[in-house]
Amino acid sequence: MRLPGQVFLTLVLLAFTGLANADSDQACPAFFKESFLQPTNAQKAWSEDKWTRLLGEWRALGLESLILQWSRYGDTDFHSGKTASYGELLDRIFKAARNHDIQLTLGLKYDPAFWERIEKSTAHRAVYFEQRRMERAHLLEGLAHYAHHPNFAGWYLPDEIDDINWRGAAERTQLIAYLKTARQQISRHSPHPVSISAFANGDLPADNWANFWQEILEQSGIDELYFQDGLGVGKLEPTEVTLYLESMTQMPFAAAGNLKVITELLESDEQESFRATSWDRLKQNMRLPAQGGLETAAFAYHPYLNPNEGHAAAKLYRDYRKAWKRCAE
Fold first, then answer.
1. Hey, what domains does the chain have and what are their CATH numbers?
2. Which of 2, 38, 220, 260 could hold 179 in an S-S bridge, CB 3.0 to 4.6 Å?
3. pLDDT tens across 72-84, in order?
4. What is the rounded distance in angstroms from the CA atom of residue 65 to the CA atom of residue 106?
5. Could you give phi then psi for residue 228, rounded to 5 degrees?
6. Which residues contact 174 (CB under 8 A, 6 or more apart)?
7. Distance (Å, rounded) from C-alpha 296 to C-alpha 172?
């Protein structure tokens, strides 16, 4: 049930500042049921057994679904073509997912040049978007068989949308047309839902951002929005996230259950790279969407909740696992 805006805002602020009645060390958070996973070249060498063990560990922590952020990164493919051979990375993940009853959402192509290309003129973007349309048509031919897998749950567009590049009317019209084309292309191959993610830099007022997404989803046909909280990468402060969530929960697309929040499991380190955050900080961040009744997806179990990925990740894994076991008893 959706909370009224003022009630939502008050509850979130109380939870974040530690004034909620529940003791922070004992209260059980809304543990993750979903995580993103970014396929990499290094993972191509991982065996089927390793994927089976890894997904089994995640399933034991309550994970029910996994979003593979892309099936192609630049010129690198992670799939086997038009038929499953279980020789490529995605094939091994799909097989492991079936063994552990984990649902998979499959991302399309991520273009590392996306941000550079969209910052140019409207005419330049038109040429670029036509190029992407042609690439997508070819890629979908090679991915369509995954839609018949019993654990296939839907599609994900890796083109992340921000609050800076699409504020003008012409830019917004162009974006809607681009996403609508992508949605129609996917629909020709399967009836499964299509999702996309977005992040805010704090450059667009929260109400405008919410209205922006209501328009985008209504006109493009995209089914679901994942909103990145931006807390790990330092794009937003907790109070700002609260305002954005409060505005978005007033929108029809949120009331229909088509809004989720990506909770970042990372934070900046002294070398200006990223490491796993602390369990105390993560608990605070998890409360923000939970107070509004919003579902969350973790970014990401690998590498930030993986005990084999450094000291910080190992500690977060131990603390998360301890809390999960205590709350599951």
1. 5-16+28-45+64-91+103-328 (3.20.20.80)
2. 220
3. 999 999 987 765 5
4. 11
5. -75, 130
6. 122, 125, 126, 129
7. 27
